[in-house]
User: Fold these one by one.
Assistant:
Number 1:
Amino acid sequence: MSDRVYIFDTTLRDGEQSPGATMNLDEKIRMARQLETLGVDIIEAGFPIASQGDFESVRAIAAAVKEPQIAGLCRAVQKDIDRCWEAVKDAANPRIHTFLATSPIHMKHKLGKTPEQVLEMTEAAVKHAARFTSNVEFSAEDASRSDWDFLVKVSETAISAGATTVNIPDTVGYTQPHEYYELIRYLLENVKNSHKAVFSVHCHNDLGLAVANTLAALRAGARQAEVTVSGIGERAGNAALEEVVMAINTRQDQYEVHTNIDTEQLFPSCRRLSQIIGQPIPPYKPIVGPNAFAHESGVHQDGVIKNRLTYEIMTPESIGRTGTEIVIGKHSGSHAIRKKVEELGYSLDDDQLAVLFDAVKDLADKKEQVFDEDVEALILEKVYRRRDKFRLKDMSVFSGAGDVPPHAAMVLEFGSVGDESDVRTMSAFGEGCVDAVFRSIYSLVGVTPKLVKYSVNAVTEGSDALAGVAVRIEHGGVSSVGRANDGDVVKASALAMVNALNRLEKAKEER
Ligand code: KIV
Ligand code: ZN
């Protein structure tokens, strides 16, 4: 058996189904490029039949990314498969990933099909997909709650029909490591044509076992792991890519397998995702969390000073945590900024670099030290948001109490940058400064959404740190997330709300 494990990243499909992790087209492309740099083998770019937006983003990722295979997900029915192929066919190496439920509960209550009908559908779907490409993956949804001998039949049928990868998902995060290990061994030993396909695993984290189950399955002989960056995904999430990869690397003695992942890109990938979805990496997150390499107790610190290996099983450098380096100062030239942008993995044209250069200079005037995270935040803020329908131009806010409530005056610019833009002003009182800001913005944009979530985090360290604000709003049955970073919390809140309203507009248009 080969010792190569294929990393199938589904951050842009299963991960994006995580609440608050919706990404727009540009964001998905940026994340896909980072996944390419990271070295994943397959990117699951989306579910093309789900919406026009999903279809377009799968197509755009297929065009933008050349190294990894690009997979699209589809149900095991012809029209889904056709749509999926349309979306992935121009990729350098396209894959159709079709799925069908095999557990008694799903077959009876969700599909209303008998096991015989499910076998027929499996065969028909895989044969149909195999007319387009020889790179076909079949997933037996809810496999971990399916009858093992039925799974043997389903796998044999899928492989005979042309599937080259067979995925055995733990869809509801129900299985246990020893049980999953035995299931994978059972399938590899009893599926007659198992040698003609790669067996894959896909684990959800409902019982906190997604990574453990994935590793158990790899030990049993599975050779594809379906994972997401930082473990984002439906409900409690999916198996975290960085945890699976570092477990394999750190415990080579146990796994004796290898991946194509450049581990020094793990931290930059998690940071990129966190910037895009506006959710900070949780403090206790293994490998990439802010506390993952922090030694607080005296005994530990003493040990680490004497020899790092006393309390560290891997180095921060091995996953690309180089510390909070000061990168840019007041006197840095455009060359240094261009170099930093490339190092962070972004590709900006000259105009975009000029915008960023001004923004970095501005920040360096206000802030003692400018870190990588600051530069990334500015790229998102100042470069990628220029095409928004409305943008914050000016604002002034007064706090207040008693008979003088907080008050905000906001100036928004409508139309795209470079157009004859339309500038409008509005002011409002509110319960607090942020409330006054939001009320003024709602009046200007003509939409009063429901504010579902509002959160503030420090992006970097110190009292002059950038504040990262995320808001989630709902209006007319559509929800949207907005994020922004700024040295001023109230301004970051305004920018995040403007961003959420722009994304709401786009989501409504896409719908
Ligand atoms: O969890 C699951 O079963 C899935 C399949 C579609 C692979 O996401
Ligand atoms: Zn899943």
Number 2:
Amino acid sequence: MKTIGIYGGTFDPIHTGHLITAQSVCEIRKLDKIIFIPSFISPHKTDRISSSPKHRINMLKLAVKGIPYFDYSDIEIKKKNISYSIDTIQAFKSSYKNIELIIGYDNLIVFDKWKNPDELLKLVQLVVLRRKAKEEKSQQNKYFKKAIFVETPLIDVRGTDIRQRVRSGKSINFLVPQKVKAYIYKHNLYKEKA
Ligand code: ATP
């Protein structure tokens, strides 16, 4: 039976931190594929205006093109509203029985603030990516016991830094795929502070 990974985020832009860790989790968890799902508006980032969903999904498409174990879905973008993982996962459950929800450690710390986290964990296995060499132990909640922690490579790349680098005229080589870099420059993304 197929097992898929769902990897949600703003992906503003998709970067090597996402891609390398996704590839690694795909191998470690023996997933058939990983589906990247950009949010229309992230429930966790309502204080920041993201690039348009069209740009974010276009960059995602460029990044996963030709990679057989990566895919994307525009399900949350089409809703044109705040999407919650529980609703997205419920929609995928009719097509896939085994779903692993992939999140970064920073998201696990605030997992108790997600919509219906207990319900959500009845539908998926939570799989957590490392973000730092040494994570803060004091911030644990009850969901830590239910999560699987994967020894993915530590890639210290963040969307915030990439946007900042573009704004200040610094190179973003190696931080995003070449095609994503070309897209960012062609469409003048991240030139102004959001
Ligand atoms: P920003 O700086 O804009 O908040 P981000 O890259 O951290 O950007 P998202 O694009 O929303 O944020 O990330 C989507 C998911 O990927 C989240 O679960 C986040 O924890 C995880 N993630 C992002 N970057 C990395 C990375 N370098 N290594 C592992 N996980 C990551």
